[in-house]
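Risk register update: the risk of archive-format incompatibility is retired. Evidence:
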Amino acid sequence: MNKKPSFFERLSGSASSGDAFDEELPTTTLPIREKPRARGNENASRPAPLDDDMPGNEGQLPVDVHQTPGDIIIRAFVAGVRPDELSISISRDMVEIEGSRMEREQVAGTDYFTRELFWGSFSRTIMLPQEVDVESSSASAKDGLLTIILPKLDKAKQTKLRVKAG
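Archived output:
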């Protein structure tokens, strides 16, 4: 009997061991759902309105998080957002950044050729890999880049307490 090699055999180049994993499972293709485009003038080359631009949708702020020996540093692009439009909440193990980016001028949707910028409110909650010192944390924004510096708590650090009589 000429048996077809299993997926594992083809992948590893080994002979069959008779495991249950030798049987191939049927594959299923899921249909791709496309978003319906706005109908109007069929000759116009204008894009359909983006779902993200609809009221009530909140964007998620992309961030970079890295560490140095003593700090956890979070960076995010917040171009077009004034510092007073940002809200940053810090706890020992979590940071939440919220803000809003508003269009300065109103443009009719039919006048756009391309619309890729995000306008509206955004937020991001970041779970920290280590506890931080909330009181010593700082945030600054320069050239549209928000930088949050969170000093790590040193759990190995010990303090001796004297007991007072009294």
